[in-house]
Amino acid sequence: MRFDIENHFATQAYVDALYKNPGYPRFVDDKTAGGRIVYHSADYWQPFGDALVDRLLDLDELRLAALDAAGIDVAVISHTAPALEQLEPKVATAIARDANDKLAEAIDRHPDRYLGFATLGPREPEEAARELERAVKDLGFKGWNTHSNYGDSYLDDKRYWPILAKAEELRVPIYLHPTFPKIAELTDYGLALSGPGFGFGVETSMVMMRLILSGVFDAFPKLTIILGHYGEALPFLLTRVDRSFLQYHVPKGSGSMPQIEKKPSEYLRGNMYATTSGNYLAAAFDCTRATIGIEHMMLGTDYPYESTGEIAEFLDGILMTEEEKSKLYEENAARLGFVI
Fold it and tell me: What number does CATH give the domain 3-11+54-335?
């Protein structure tokens, strides 16, 4: 079987909320820009057309047809960016609960084709932890999909640690997915710099490093984080991220460095999984396989932003043994609880 670990959806409540949001992100209809656009700040926006929204809202025919065309058996479905976590906290919590209920209904309609990631409003951390428990225990979801920033903060902030604790307690992974970065310098050239081609990965890999350096994995050693796009380039940097901890002139225990129990690379090898989503460079696949190992890699398509057929064709062209294919497409996912 083939499991797609990154497959996105949205709800009408989410779309309506982005139109009503007085702040950012906000949907605006603009014919001069080709239809709907989403503003992330007053002068930072991107197109977000009907064809994309139609695919996000659909949890039946369109999605199943895309899976079938690529030979994918099961999609693990998660909420889309721009991050609802950036909305007013109570609004985000309400939309998240509605999204979880809507996804659970779709899974009930297609129990042999869909699994779910929970959607949460993390800026109400105690409520988010309760909702994660409901999503896992009552709805049967397999983890939590969250985003690279919450507008005013990142996931390493200690206010969010109760959610991390709950994820570890429930033994479910967290998919750390990009959204539009809040780093101002990444927004100067619009989508070309801030978007999936560069800025998405830059911010998300930074957040993973912040989780490591803040001591999250020392506090929650069994916590698993999944990153898309071959680990957002972190496999390429696997030994480089250790350099500051190994240089002879950096005094140990002086307070100049975070006092974590292991080298950063050890957490990347032990607590991180990477999916194949949205990256069609064979060298990126090879680098990830050589550094964190095929045992920590899974299929991800990034539907509907990317073509399920394109990623299937790309992976079919990668030289893998049958054992490696089995791990990539099913066994590794099963080890994290993604089973039908």
Answer: 3.20.20.140
